[in-house]
Backbone:
């Protein structure tokens, strides 16, 4: 399993739990879950580039 | 000469209105008590021990929601937590067994959040004793986070049971 695949899987499952537990209506659950997923993956990509540039 | 005061009602009406410092929406006011359902009219899922969904939800991922007949939410929560735990084991993640330092204590607390999954896995001897490969470190985090997410799900079931959440 690649590192990126691990990040995506982690973000996917954690976002499902966050969406269901932190919002009340199904529509808002889906929206919040998607929002968390995008934030998880995007922040992982940004931090990876930052660490890459620092290490150079 | 004796000073004369206005009647009590006049003095009260002369004062400015008292500020509202808190909401009585969720409090046991007479109005709210009358609006609450009596025991006989509650559904079966709302009767009994109030902490049961919390305990069942901790022991079995999604179990608290199943108990409250929230089948869809329970299946998604249980499936997600079970998948994260299984992925962690498959990546040769470590199951914390003892508490030697503060990081071990935190890891053990996270693992214990998995409830029966953790206990059964320990009995079955699953999980690595030591982290040997890079993915095993990820696996260890997957297992810990699955436990923490399970605690969040169990608290959510408790909130559904108490009516704090719909």
Residues:
């Amino acid at each position: 399993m690649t590192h990126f695949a691990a990040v995506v899987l982690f973000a996917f499952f954690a976002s499902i739990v966050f969406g269901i537990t932190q919002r009340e209506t199904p529509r808002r659950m889906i929206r919040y879950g998607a929002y968390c997923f995008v934030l998880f993956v995007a922040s992982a990509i940004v931090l990876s580039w930052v660490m890459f540039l620092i290490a150079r | 000469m004796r000073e004369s005061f206005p009647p009590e009602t006049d003095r009260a009406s002369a004062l400015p209105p008292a500020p509202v410092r808190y909401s009585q929406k969720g409090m046991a006011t007479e109005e709210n008590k009358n609006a609450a359902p009596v025991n006989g009219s509650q559904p079966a899922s709302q009767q009994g021990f109030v902490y049961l969904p919390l305990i069942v939800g901790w022991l079995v991922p999604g179990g608290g929601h199943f108990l409250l007949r929230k089948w869809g939410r329970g299946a998604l929560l249980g499936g997600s937590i079970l998948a994260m735990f299984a992925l962690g084991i498959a990546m040769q993640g470590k199951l914390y067994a003892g508490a030697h330092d503060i990081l071990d204590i935190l890891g053990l607390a996270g693992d214990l959040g998995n409830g029966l999954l953790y206990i059964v896995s320990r009995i079955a001897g699953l999980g690595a004793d030591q982290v040997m490969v890079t993915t095993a470190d990820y696996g260890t985090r997957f297992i810990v986070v699955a436990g923490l997410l399970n605690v969040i799900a169990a608290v959510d079931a408790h909130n559904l049971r108490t009516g704090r959440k719909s």
In short: Residues 32-36 of chain B have pLDDT under 50 and may be disordered. The radius of gyration of chain B is 26 Å. Residues 50-162 of chain B form one domain.
